[in-house]
Amino acid sequence: MSLIASTPKPPYYAVIFTSHRTEGDSGYSEMAARMVELASMQPGFLGVESAREDVGITVSY
């Protein structure tokens, strides 16, 4: 069986959050970058994925 990604043995944990942006940035970009920076310092950090349409969703593994 071929896997798409080489990952460590389970279990995996995910932190999932949604966001709804209003007009203007109001520091969102800086805060999002800082959140990824802090998450990447956690033991076992695998990565972050985000998607945005009307509502944004971010998953940190």
Report on this model:
Helix content is 21%, strand content 25%. The chain is an alpha+beta fold and 61 residues long. The protein has one domain (15-60).
Structural class: alpha+beta
Largest sheet: 3 strands, antiparallel
- Number of helical runs? 1
Report the count of strand segments: 3
**Total domain modules:** 1
Lateral arrangement of strands in the main beta sheet: 1-3-2
Strand coverage percent: 15-25%
Rg calculated over all Cα atoms: 14 Å
Span from first to last CA?
23 Å
Question: How would you summarize this macromolecular structure in one to three sentences?
Answer:
By secondary structure, the protein is of the alpha+beta class. The chain is built from one helix and three strands; from the N terminus they run E-H-E-E.
Task: Fill in the keyword field for this structure.
61 residues; alpha+beta; three-stranded antiparallel sheet; 21% helix
Write the layout of secondary structure elements.
Elements (H helix, E strand, L loop, with lengths): L14 E5 L8 H13 L7 E5 L3 E5 L1
Antiparallel strand pairs: 1-3, 2-3
